Backbone:
C-alpha cells in the first residue's frame, strides 16, 4: 500500500455522497457495500459502486468494502467491482489466514478472467474480532494483504467481542492497537491503519484519538464523514518541526561520516547509524506525502 493517511468510507448506495466524497481531499475512497448499506439495497449498491469505479477510478485511489465471508455474498460483491480502477478491497471481520486465502482465490480468478495482473487487487484486512487481532501477524503476512486495519469504533464489533468499556481516552484499546501495529510492522506492512472515530461532530476527540494512533506508529485512519478528512490528514503528516528536526539529524550524521566518524550529536542528542536511519525513513515518508 502506498502512503495513505485518510480513507473515507461512503455507502455505495448513496450516489450523492459518493460525489461529495470525491471532493473531500481524502487520500483514498472506500465504497461501502457492507454495514452502511441496508440489506434490500445491496444489489443496487454493487451496481452504483461499479459505475463510480469507472467514473472516478482514474483520478482517485478507490477501495471497496465488501460484505464479510460469513454473509455468503462476498463473491457477488467482488464480481461486481473487480476491474480497472479498483485499488483493492477491504475485507471486514478477517479472522484467519483461511479467510484471506478464500478471498485471494476469488480475486485471482477474477483477475485472470478480466485481464488484470495477478495480485493487483490489494486486500486491506479489517481486524474486528478477538480472533482477528490475535491472528494479526499471520493475516498481515499473507502476500495479498497490503495493510491491516483495527476496528476501534465505539460500540463496534471489536468492543462487543472483547468486552471492554469505551473510556474516551484509549487505554482500554492500547494493547489491541499495539498488538496489531507490531504484527503489521513485523510482517513488513508500512502503512498500518487505525479504525474509525464514529462521532464526526467531535473534531477535538478525533484529533486526540488519531494522535494516539499516530504516536504508536499507525500511518493512517479511516474516516466516516468528509469533515473528518482534514484533521486525519493533518495528524498523519509529518509537520514542519519533524521534517526540520530529522533533516538536521541526517545532515549532521552525513557530515560526521565525511570526517571519518559514525556518530555525532545534535542539540545534546547522540546520533549514530540507527538515528540516521530513522531520520531517513521519516523524511522519505514526508516526501511521499508531498512535504
Residues:
Amino acid at each position: 500500500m502506498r502512503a495513505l493517511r485518510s480513507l473515507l468510507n461512503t455507502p455505495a448506495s448513496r450516489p450523492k455522497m459518493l460525489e461529495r466524497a470525491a471532493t473531500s481531499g481524502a487520500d483514498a475512497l472506500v465504497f461501502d457495500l457492507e454495514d452502511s448499506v441496508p440489506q434490500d439495497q445491496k444489489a443496487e449498491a454493487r451496481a452504483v459502486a461499479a459505475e463510480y469505479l469507472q467514473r472516478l477510478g482514474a483520478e482517485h485511489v478507490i477501495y471497496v468494502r465488501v460484505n464479510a465471508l460469513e454473509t455468503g455474498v462476498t463473491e457477488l460483491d467482488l464480481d461486481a467491482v473487480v476491474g480497472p480502477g479498483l485499488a483493492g478491497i477491504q475485507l471486514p471481520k478477517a479472522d484467519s489466514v483461511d479467510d484471506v486465502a478464500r478471498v485471494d482465490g476469488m480475486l485471482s480468478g477474477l483477475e485472470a478472467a478480466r485481464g488484470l495482473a495477478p495480485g493487483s487487487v490489494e486486500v486491506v484486512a479489517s481486524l474486528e474480532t478477538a480472533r482477528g487481532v490475535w491472528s494479526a501477524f499471520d493475516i498481515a503476512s499473507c502476500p495479498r494483504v497490503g495493510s491491516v486495519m483495527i476496528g476501534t469504533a465505539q460500540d463496534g464489533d471489536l468492543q462487543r467481542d472483547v468486552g471492554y468499556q469505551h473510556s474516551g481516552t484509549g487505554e482500554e484499546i492500547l494493547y489491541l492497537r499495539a498488538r496489531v501495529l507490531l504484527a503489521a510492522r513485523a510482517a513488513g506492512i508500512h502503512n498500518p491503519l487505525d479504525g474509525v472515530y464514529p462521532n464526526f461532530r467531535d473534531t477535538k476527540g478525533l484529533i486526540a484519538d488519531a494522535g494516539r494512533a499516530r504516536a504508536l506508529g499507525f500511518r493512517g485512519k479511516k474516516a466516516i464523514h468528509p469533515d473528518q478528512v482534514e484533521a486525519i490528514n493533518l495528524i498523519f503528516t509529518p509537520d514542519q518541526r519533524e521534517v526540520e528536526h530529522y533533516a538536521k539529524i541526517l545532515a549532521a550524521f552525513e557530515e560526521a561520516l565525511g570526517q571519518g566518524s559514525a556518530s555525532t550529536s545534535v542539540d545534546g542528542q547522540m546520533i549514530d547509524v540507527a538515528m540516521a536511519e530513522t531520520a531517513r525513513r521519516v523524511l522519505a515518508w514526508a516526501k511521499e506525502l508531498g512535504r
Summary: The mean pLDDT is 96. The radius of gyration is 20 Å.
